[in-house]
Design goal:
The chain is an alpha/beta fold. Helices cover 36% and strands 18% of the residues. The protein has five helices and five strands, in the order E-H-E-H-E-H-E-H-E-H. The structure holds flavin mononucleotide.
């Protein structure tokens, strides 16, 4: 049976560490036989949740934009894997915009994927990852998804891409092992 992952890559640019982590994860998961839907919210038309309350009827969001394809992949996925840089000790605004649009889950009974996980990177030698973790865990609880684990990469101001690649490969290998 096909096993699907939705990889939400909240890179702001394709030359950076976030994109590298996503590429490595996508490659490793595909090699293990997973079907991977990778989305780049920065390149999509995704509006902010206005809190209008229209989704309270359980029929989803009324905003007509590219979230439609993200919702579709989200509901087909066994795992949703988020990837974001740390911005001001929290998730980036790119991923937060997507996460807020999952307010639809608050009012739906079917809820989300079986598993969620996250990959994060920060430039500081000891980035504050707790803010980001609160956001991801809060979403996973709302979605009824089991939390699989998180990768926290620090010190990207000094690291090179090969170190980040290695850390990501190790993390995804562990994720895959835990699902066998
Ligand atoms: C707006 C902004 C805020 C940032 N805030 C933090 C921070 O609070 N802590 C930290 O460790 N790094 C912070 N950084 C650094 C990034 O997390 C780091 O450079 C990361 O590797 C960027 O990912 P990228 O290479 O995919 O762009 C910030 C960077 C930007 C652009």
């Amino acid at each position: 049976m096909e096993r699907r992952v939705l990889l939400i890559c909240a890179c702001g640019r394709r030359e950076g560490f976030t994109y590298t982590m996503c590429s490595v994860a996508e490659h490793a998961l595909k090699n293990d036989g997973w079907t991977v839907d990778t989305v780049f919210p920065i390149e999509m038309k995704i509006g902010h949740c206005t809190g209008c309350g229209s989704c309270e009827d359980g029929k989803g969001c009324v905003i007509d934009d590219d979230m439609e394809s993200v919702y579709r992949s989200f509901h087909e996925a066994e795992i949703v894997l988020f990837c974001t840089p740390i911005h001001y000790s929290g998730v980036s605004s790119v991923i937060k915009t997507v996460i807020d649009r999952f307010q639809t889950l608050w009012y739906s009974s079917g809820k989300g994927p079986k598993y969620m996980a996250a990959m994060m990177c920060g430039g500081h030698e000891e980035p504050e990852f707790r803010g980001a973790m609160h956001v991801f865990k809060s979403l996973s609880i709302t979605a009824g998804s089991e939390w699989l684990g998180e990768l926290k990469i620090a010190d990207t101001d000094r690291k090179d891409f090969s170190e980040v690649k290695k850390e990501t490969e190790n993390f995804i290998a562990g994720l895959i092992r835990s699902l066998k």
